[in-house]
Amino acid sequence: MATQRKAKKSFTTDADRWQAVAHRDQEANGTFFYSVKTTGVYCRPSCAARLAKRENVQFHTTPEDAERAGFRACKRCKPKEQSANGEQAIAVANACKLIAEAKEPLSLESLANAVHMSPWHFHRIFKSLTGLTPKGYATANRSQRVREELSRSRTVTSAIYNAGFNSNGRFYANSTKVLGMKPTDFKVGGEGATIRFAIGECSLGSILVAATDLGICAISLGDEPNTLVEDLQDRFPKAEFIGADKKFERLVGQVIAFVERPAAGLELPLHVQGTAFQQRVWKKLCEIPCGKTSSYAVIAEKLGHAKATRAVAQACAANAIAVAIPCHRVVRTDGSLSGYRWGVERKAKLLKIEGSRDKR
To answer: Count of domains in the chain?
Structure first.
């Protein structure tokens, strides 16, 4: 299933910039700055200061432009720190590239030296921007690489070492969590794995429920039942798929009843597959009460990574278990709806069913 992506905003016109300021849009940070004639101060677009009147607001490309016009930096949002943040983001991006390209695991010291930071400072900055420690990011990266290697290497052992794991024992200890099945099963497209599934209909359209022996691994929503089945089969082309039997149809009925009345809860085991960070995000989503919403920024703060808003959004987009892991309850800071894997219209309808779009 293709994740729906919202086109990136450009903020090239004054009208767009004013809307960004009025809504304190964090996506606009770094693209421009604004000043207020009556206070003599310039700010970032997302500054939480009281909104000025439009006729008193001017826009600037850089902090230097604003200062040349006679304005001083806001002490609340500290717009001049954007440059430092940009340099840190570049350093972290370079470190991520080194991790991705390395054939062997890199030490914290070697990564920090490569981007000219102390190990302690690098560790703190990396975690604040990505939501993961360098070690956690490297593990997630190797896990993705082992998926790719399993599809082309001759043996499971060679795939594990080619992906950067220096101990096949260490990988096997977590292989089911990483892959959702044994490495030998994953290598042959899910051969040997049994996935039961069934299609039903609900107020949101067609619904597919799939489960392994460990629990529900997918709840998908869409317009075309065949598309939902094809997407599931594409994930594991050689798995054994078993169509609905009487017992499983009852389980699907439970899921549909839950979708129609989320407040009732779903007392069924879930087989959740994702990186450590994704699973932390999904756990936080499950803590949002039915009838309430939260924002990507708030979730990031609760995880202890206030700057990882985008990573939280990506984790929401990667969720394959609709409603039971309630990524539909996460909205933008201004309360507006952003993208949803199964369509923004369904997100809006789910929130309407739950009876509230008030942020917690």
So the answer is: 4
